[in-house]
Amino acid sequence: MSEFKHITVEETAERLQQKQVCIADIRDEQSYRNGHIEGAWHLTSASLPQFIQQVGVARPVVVVCYHGNSSQGAAQYLAQQGFAEVYSMDGGMALWQQHHPVQSGHG
């Protein structure tokens, strides 16, 4: 069975800049609207089938939550769904916002 890996905010930013990863933000709707990583999917149980279909299991995915705790469970779930390369971003959006810009609205 696949396992997720941990990734730092800086590694995430570098890979995102090189378009090597897809960001899956699992926070609530209001938090997502208030500020998320540019291009991030708002991943919910409702959007999961579309996410799997459009992103595909071969693309590396970084799961983002508030502080890097909830994302671990979600990352493990995606790994179990067949995603080949899944990461949980340590520090979550709380740490990301200290060093990188966020986008507000629906994306």
TrEMBL record:
It catalyses: thiosulfate + [thioredoxin]-dithiol = [thioredoxin]-disulfide + hydrogen sulfide + sulfite + 2 H(+); thiosulfate + hydrogen cyanide = thiocyanate + sulfite + 2 H(+). Residues 17-105 form the Rhodanese domain. The active site is at C65 (cysteine persulfide intermediate). It is found in: Cytoplasm. The keyword Transferase applies. GO terms for molecular function: thiosulfate-cyanide sulfurtransferase activity. Keywords: Cytoplasm, Transferase. HAMAP family: Thiosulf_sulfurtr. NCBIfam families: PRK00162.1. Belongs to the GlpE family. This is Thiosulfate sulfurtransferase GlpE. It comes from Alkalimonas mucilaginosa. The lineage of its organism: Bacteria, Pseudomonadati, Pseudomonadota, Gammaproteobacteria, Alkalimonas. The gene is glpE.
